[in-house]
Amino acid sequence: MPGGSSSGSAVAVAMGAIPFAVASDGGGSVRIPAALCGVWGLKPTWGRVPNTGDDNLNGTVGHLAPSRAPSKTSRSSSRSRRARREVHGERRLPRPRPGRVATCALTRGVKGLRIAVDDSEWADADPTVAFLCDEALRALEREGATRVKVKVPTARHAGGIGFVTMVAEAALGHADEWERHRDMMSADVRLALSLGRLMSSKEYLHMQALRQRLRREMAEALTGAELYATPTTAVAAPPLRPAAEVCGESDQASINALVRFTFLGNLTGLPAGTAPVGRQGGHAPVGFQLTGRPWDEATVLAAMAAIERSGAARVEQPAVFYP
Questions:
Q1: Geometric angle at alpha carbon 80, from 74 and 81, rounded to 5°
Q2: Closest by alpha carbon to 33, among 15, 56, 53, 58?
Q3: Could you give the CA distance from residue 294 to residue 296 in angstroms, rounded to a whole number?
Q4: Measured between alpha carbons, how far is 188 from 184 in angstroms, rounded to an integer?
């Protein structure tokens, strides 16, 4: 499985067909395909890239991401920064704080940087995935970063909160398409939109209350740290059944494992990037995720560039490659 929605962008970058790509991210659709395809990805702060003119992103979790950042789109950290600038246009960006300019961030290093880690969160990841991500975190520590222990108890429920939020908002946003074109949709899309149409206002509002709790917990965790680290996905790429190419697939167990750590960034709106940090069994790529403070993509990029320089993160050429 290449990662679900927006995975075409990641596949095209991984196989060398294009240098970088643009994608949308409602629950991890930039970072999950990037992680599973072994390239870089960046979901910016919510609102950093305007959603103007895109009727598919009229909810509260959907983000537009230029370049699959640090490299999702590109195959290196520096190229992702350039792609971000080209997609947004610098004039559209909120004025960055002094010292936070992304162009300079790639070379500033991580000395003195504090990286928050919730060990109970990492325990839900596949042991090999967690090991490779911990190796990347250790590489940052060798460069001068410090690991800080935190607790974000509501994070384990981010997948459920995000699912209810996203499908309810998607059902509303695609109401016209549902009435006119539902027969043209794949079975998995029809299932998701059907569930969204069944969500009650009580269920939706209850999830938003939990979402606020999650945002407060993350704000507290990032008070004493600049970044929050997790694996990007709890597992490496799961196998794709042949029938999925025809009718789609809705395997909730696989979906839960893939969005286990990514929905956090969509619910809070915080910037989050994924770096390719190795392969499970020498085959399936693994991603390491870093989440930053609001509007501070620069620090996320700085840490990802540091991992790349250390050799702990790199894009490996796949068997099928077209330069």
A1: 160
A2: 15
A3: 5
A4: 12
Report the run of H or E that residue 114 belongs to, with start and end.
Answer: strand 114-117
Question: Could you tell me what percent of the chain has a pLDDT over 70?
Answer: 86
Residue 222: CB atoms within 10 A of its CB come to: 22
Q: At what angle do helices 127-142 and 297-310 cross, to 10 degrees?
A: 90
Tokens read off for 17: 């067909």
43 and 25 Cβ atoms separated by less than 8 Å: yes
Q: Whole-model pTM?
A: 0.89
Average of per-residue pLDDT values in the chain: 87
Contact (CB, 8 A) for 303 and 113? yes
What is the Cα–Cα distance from 28 to 273, expressed in whole angstroms? Answer: 10
Say whether 287 sits in a helix, a strand or coil.
Answer: strand
Sign of the C-alpha dihedral computed for residues 51, 52, 57 and 59 taken in this order = positive
Output the DSSP codes for 201-234: HHHHHHHHHHHHHHHHHHHHHTTS-SEEEEESSS
The amino acid present at 68, given as its one-letter code, is R
Looking at the DSSP assignment, which residues form a beta bridge with residue 272?
43, 291
| Whole-number Å distance between alpha carbons of 13 and 259 | 21
pLDDT value for 195: 94
Would you tell me how many other CB atoms lie within 10 Å of the CB of residue 181?
A: 10
Residues 6+ apart with CB under 8 A from 304: 40, 70, 77, 273, 275, 290, 313
Q: Amino acid letter at 127?
A: P
CA distance 169 to 156: 22
Instruction: Report the alpha-carbon angle 239-245-249, nearest 5.
Output: 65
Cα 195 from chain centre: 24
Could you give the 3-state DSSP secondary structure of residue 147?
strand
Tell me what percent of the residues of the chain surpass a pLDDT of 90: 66
